[in-house]
Design a protein that fits this description.
Helix content is 40%, strand content 17%. It is an alpha+beta fold.
Length: 333
Amino acid sequence: MRETLFVFPRDLIPAAWGSVSARFAAANRRRFIRDLERWGSVPDGDGAAWLQAAEFAVLDHLADGVPRSSARLREEVPEVGGSIVLAPDRSWGGKVAIAPRVLAQLSMAGSVARAANAGPWYTSRPTWTTTAEWWGHDVPDVPETRPGYAELVRRWLWSYGPGTVEDIAWWIGGTKAAVRTALDDLGARNVSLEDGSIGWLRQDDLEPVSAPEPWVALLPLLDPTVMGWKERDFLLGPHAPQVFDSAGNAGTTALVDGRVVGAWVQDTQGVVELRLLENITRTAHDALRREARKLTDWLDRQRVFTVYPSPAMQADAAPSAVDPATSRAVRSS
């Protein structure tokens, strides 16, 4: 939710619209208007009216039910065809097209939705349509803010609990006050975590959990398993600097029994290779290698590129292997 792309089950979307999405929509609107008036050609005091007119123009154009890309909307809707130059004297500044920002604003407000992807599955070239068209003209009612947050927190606890108030607030992009209110509304139970902090669980999730059989997994970039908590030492150990980039984006990861032990990459032929960061047993390594072969086959050797490579992914070291004499991972020569 923190102003990035989230994927929800359809029945959870209204709760997001009514809570954190509305919060970000309001904040983003204020920032967008400020940028239009400061860096664009919109006179001071006219930004709100200008943005509203641009939104109406986009929605009116999409009302025919034909999904369109941001680039196509720039060509067909004059109101969003321009750009602004943000902070021209700063390294982070530069020319920014208006159409994508208008679409982002409308998306946060629940007025438009991503339709089909205009490129192959491994690229991001979304088209856009109205929410009514995407939903089949039967858009569900949006709950009030408080029950919306309660439902999001309830789902988070089911997937990630126990977790702290800080974990939940970080994940959903809400305030700690909103999270505490939601926990109270849900009747959540507090529990002691290994580090001595207070975590929370749903009332119907208090039974002890049996230890699973040994397992491994290769996870993609920004996987919610790795991104689910603010504090992740129990999952990452000492490897956070190696599997996250400087902006906090998770790279690919290799997990053994629920703990990150490295990353994975593809070679020039699309073959998945391991980049282990610690010693693991031969059994675990063999299991990861089987997962690597399965992933290579599933991707059909299509190389998937990313703008978020972690240090572990960028390392030039050869794939890890296991020393038969010690059953420990070592670097292949």
